[in-house]
Amino acid sequence: MDxxxxxxxxxxxxxxxxxxxxxxxxxxxxxxxxxVVLPTGGGKSLCFQAPALAVDGMAVVVSPLLSLMKDQVxxxxxxGVAAAKxxxxxxxxxxxxxxxxxxxxxxxxxxxxxxxxxxxxxxEYLKKAGVSFLVVDEAHCISHWGHDFRPEYRLLKQLRSAFxxxxxxxxxxxxxxxxxxxxxxxxxxxxxxVLIGSFDRPNLRYRVQKRGDLFKQVRELIDAHPGDSGVxxxxxxxxxxxxxxxxxxxxxxxxxYHAGMEEADRKRNxxxxxxxxxxxxxxxxxFGMGIxxxxxxxxxxxxxxKSVEHYQQETGRAGRDGLEADxxxxxxxxxxxxxxxxxxxxxxEGGDVxxxxxxxxxxxxxxxxxxxxxxxxxxxxxxxxxxCGACDVCLGEVESLADAxxxxxxxxxxxxxxxxxxxxxxxxxxxxxAREERILAKDHHRLPSFGLxxxxxxxxxxxxxxxxxxxxxxxxxxxxxILRLTPRGLALNRGEETxxxxxRTQGRVRRPTPRRGAAQRVEADLAxxxxxxxxxxxxxxxxxxxxxGVAPFIVFSxxxxxxxxxxxxxxxxxxxxxxxxxxxxxxxxxxxxxxxxNAYCEEEGSx
Length: 607
Ligand code: ADP
Ligand code: MG
Known about the structure:
The chain has a seven-stranded parallel sheet, sandwiched between helices. A six-stranded parallel sheet has the order 8-13-12-9-11-10, sandwiched between helices. It is built from 27 helices and 15 strands. Mean pLDDT is 90; it is low at 506-524. It is an alpha/beta fold. Helix 18 (404-417) packs across helix 22 and helix 23 packs across helix 25. 45% of the residues lie in helices and 12% in strands.
């Protein structure tokens, strides 16, 4: 008998495990400590929630934020799982109720904050309560090297000695080695199984576009997603307020979020987003963790973030449900300069390391490599070289400069002139005719290629070289990144190849067609998808959510709703077959959704 499989089907309505979920669940069943690293949307919660139902006792989950605890407990309860949280917002009556269910041993999952779990009296209480296993969610918060360090997570050190015989399971989406080692050490994990998933997010469609008229561009991107939830990131608070005001004035349902606002206002805006009374959040980096909302359909960056790590984090909030989502970065070289001045002014930003990360981010924007490949490889994971079907580069949306071949051949000429002795920067200087001392000293100003690209600035030529390296015309070798031609580079020299080159912040001119054309790497039978019915079911979902006091995505995810639209179930048996419909949800919501589908189909039929 496949106990976990049955639990997955009954309580969540899913037929299949996502990658590494089963392995992660097995660790909890085997009482073996584990560290599980999966991307956002990778399905980490189920990795501990499903086994909690398969074993005796109550699993205790440490989570950093009240909003995360609430969403997870709401989601579990709507699926009929006995779950609760203990936090400071609860009144005496609620506390007593939780206490009673713990005493009766009926609770399967208990969510608590790190501060609470380490209170000596509470630990004693838990020891007598029959804890099955311990879970530390968002475990990167324990590490200084992560992006969300929380001092209170350090207290979790004490758990190991307080619960020497209880297995501990840590979960995070932060993949770096430093953070991983930190988590294992700080929590005192004992010979943990370390499970690391792939960080590619195939359902996200990445694009980089030159920023011109920010407001106009943002509007167009939003208009491609009517009624959907989306996030627009800006660098500064003033930019947030300004853009948000303009959007509101133009009739969009948008709210701001940044650290300069009152806590209560931020909370209210976040809730409005979760509950879908607003469509758009315009935010600084302050907005992020604490959002488990699974149906964010687009993330727009109004400016370049300061590192690829930030970009990955922020875009990661889109498409957690596995359905496609659009991530568009509007970029201008001015962003680079703004960040550089911020970093240089602010020692706390970390100086050289921060500048290096900033450069990496700018390179990501400028280069013409598949975005999925670039992102995944940045984090040290290999990615096959084939078109991903889900980024501007692979979709052929990037338009090349008219003179790309001429420029490419000029660069090849310089590499040949310099006879395998120069790196990208030096080569760019020679090509642009820079009369630097080191060039004059070596007589390189007499080379035929000296000044061939004098009309262009060094940074541009430097970017083209990177683009050509990425397209395999030459490679960087040795510690000094000496440029060397490849066979493809020789073909370019003979005029047999035409590379793709763009200006650093230009060239992305062809208007992409959102939603259409992209080879979607998510399975969904879109042929039978009827957007009008989707909107009808959204309304039913919304009404249910309000009635229950939970967020709409907790009733059903967008993905489940979409499958419902494609399958049009008209009875309970077929309703139960829709992925994401658990036994409990079928009982609680089935009748209403089936009635709505039925009414819609009849109306269609009578037309
Ligand atoms: P993470 O914590 O890793 O970011 P979540 O646990 O929030 O991810 O899960 C993301 C989404 O994936 C949720 O909507 C969840 O219901 C869904 N999900 C989880 N496991 C499965 C599965 N086996 N099949 C289909 N959907 C799943
Ligand atoms: Mg999670």
